[in-house]
What we know:
By secondary structure, the protein is an all-alpha fold. The protein folds into two domains: 1-81, no CATH class; 112-227, Leucine-rich Repeat Variant (Alpha Horseshoe), CATH 1.25.10. The chain has helices at 2-16, 20-28, 41-51, 55-63, 67-76, 84-93, 97-107, 113-121, 126-142, 148-152, 154-161, 167-181, 185-199, 204-217, 220-226.
Amino acid sequence: MKDNIQYKKILKQLKSLSNPEAVAGMAKFGINLKNTYGVSIPQLRKIAKEIGKNHNLAQQLWKSRVHEARILASYIEEPRKITEAQLEKWVKDFDSWDVCDQVCGLFEETPYAFQKAIDWSSRKEEFVKRAAFALIAGLAVHDKKASDEQFMQFFPIIKQEVTNDRNFVKKSINWALRNIGKRNKTLNKKAIEIAREIKRMDSKTAKWIASDALRELSSKTIQKRLK
């Protein structure tokens, strides 16, 4: 009962923060505007901080189908209570790259993250496939305990998918490759090697992914930081 009251209050609060100008701006970045109010990420993080972690409320917010409510749900969800079934259910609901990327920040904290990155990389749905590479990109930055071998396993997957020319997919593959390559010197060397192999492929998309990654990974800034 308490969660229901809070749920309705939050949806009312999100609606009160509607910003038509922000929604118009979101369209320029390819964000799905269905059920969208234009509430900023800083505002959502502030609301999440006031709410605190709440698994049941997160479930309700997700079911609302409201764009910002789903992002908020990922901020207040309790990682230890997430099941594999929930991961599969939520990932199928992804309909915008920003929701995908924000929610993958939550998925990283579950014990299923590495396996789901592998599983979802072969899926056909655009945002499920993006979720795979968003997970890889996030894990490369945030999982300090993971081994080099755990990231090496993603290189064949990246090579397999680099010809996918869907905008939100190719950008996430590029993101994943760059983040792995910025993790440490060993992975940087291997990522550069893989990028050079990709660049030789007869694919405009593959060449773009590789060239952009090589530009950053071979840069003086990155090389100096990894020494």
